[in-house]
Specification:
It comes from Methanofollis liminatans DSM 4140. It contains 16 helices and 7 strands. The protein is α/β, with parallel strands linked by helices. Strands 2-3-4-1-5 form a 5-stranded parallel β-sheet. The protein has a two-stranded parallel ribbon with strand order 6-7. The longest helix is centred in the C-terminal third of the chain and has 19 residues, at 280-298. Bound molecules: adenosine-5'-triphosphate (ATP).
Length: 322
């Protein structure tokens, strides 16, 4: 098995737009810029690990060809969130001439929503002033955190979480290249824990590959400290049956023996409930309790007590409903 010293998310980052999985519509629209040789300012929004940076780099490679490294620069706005980063680094790059016969350069600004509103206002002016020599690709998780005048100057691309088929395709590709065998259940488990985030998926695969080159679902759940969906179903089932003692035992097992973090467990219960077919009133009550527990834990309440209280409330709601 090849060196665990290389991080697979980097090693297998697609170099071309064509090699990206999922995001087909976006990829198609981006390729049309390459064909036409023109590029507006772009705003990429969406959750983490779905290909925003990958698409920006691949687009630059295809757009500029051999001179891409001279004409493309990546900056992360969360390193320096204030106006100085715009005044210094961004302006400096934008004002200098493109190289190797290119008509403009491209600056990719990751986590643009980390910029303060003042810095965004300065960025807007820079985008206007240097539009001839520089195009911007801004990336963020939430477009609502980007000021309107910037949004209106950009073509907006909304990246979605990757679906199971896309995650599975890339995971299988990487596993084959690393000569790792994966069961179908392991692929399904990786897609479950990834929640649409390819970075999470590939890190889970690499984490399990440290143990063995034959990977099954149990190894994925264990190395990522995630409960199996069946374990969550059991826990919720015991609550719904009114078996508080049984539910408490299952909860203890997950928290203490399996080492699953309370926040993760809450998230998994929430995900399970949203996909279950069950009495709507009971589902509403459960989700309401989850919201409370989640808030209290985030405010610093004792997580184990909150988890016990949560299953107690589940049991009470189920009994009321019966
Ligand atoms: N659509 C995709 N196809 C194939 N691999 C992908 C895709 N999206 C992400 N990846 C893989 O996941 C890694 C992280 O993706 P990327 O850096 O593009 O995420 P991002 O959307 O920019 O996230 P962030 O908002 O956290 O910066 C990449 O290095 C690549 O290996």
């Amino acid at each position: 098995m090849e060196g665990n010293s290389t991080i697979w998310i980097e090693k297998y980052r697609p170099q071309t737009l064509e090699d990206m999985v999922g995001q087909e519509e976006i990829v198609e629209r981006l390729r049309s810029y390459v064909r036409s040789g023109s590029l507006p300012h772009l705003l990429f929004t969406g959750p983490a690990g779905v290909g925003k940076t990958t698409a920006a780099v691949a687009l630059a490679r295809e757009f500029f060809g051999e001179t891409w490294q001279m004409n493309f620069r990546e900056l992360n706005a969360s390193d320096e969130r204030g106006i100085d980063v715009v005044r210094n680094q961004i302006k400096q790059f934008a004002r200098t001439s493109p190289l190797g016969g290119a008509t403009f350069k491209v600056l990719f600004l990751d986590e643009a929503d980390a910029l303060t509103p003042d810095a965004q206002a300065a960025l807007r002016r820079t985008m206007e002033n240097y539009a001839q020599t520089c195009r911007f690709i801004l990336s963020c998780n939430y477009s609502s955190k980007i000021i309107d005048p910037i949004q209106s100057r950009c073509a907006i691309y909304r990246f979605k979480g990757l679906d199971e088929a896309a995650v599975a395709e890339q995971v299988r590709r990487v596993a084959a290249a690393e000569e790792i065998s994966l069961t179908d259940d392991a692929v399904h488990a990786i897609a479950y824990i990834a929640e649409g985030d390819m970075r999470k998926a590939l890190n889970a695969l690499q984490g399990a590959a440290i143990l063995s080159d034959r990977i099954d679902a149990r190894m994925i759940y264990e190395t990522t400290s995630t409960a199996k969906p069946e374990e969550i179903a059991d826990l919720l089932g015991l609550c719904t049956k009114g078996d508080f003692t049984g539910a408490q035992g299952a909860l203890r097992h997950l928290l203490r023996n399996r080492g699953i973090a309370p926040g993760e467990l809450i998230n998994q219960c929430f995900r399970a409930l949203t996909s279950y077919q069950m009495d709507t009133a009971l589902k509403v009550a459960y989700i309401d309790h989850i919201g409370e527990a989640d808030f209290r834990i985030s405010e610093g309440a004792d997580a184990e007590i909150q988890m016990d209280a949560l299953i107690a409330l589940f049991v009470l709601s189920a009994q009321k409903q019966a």
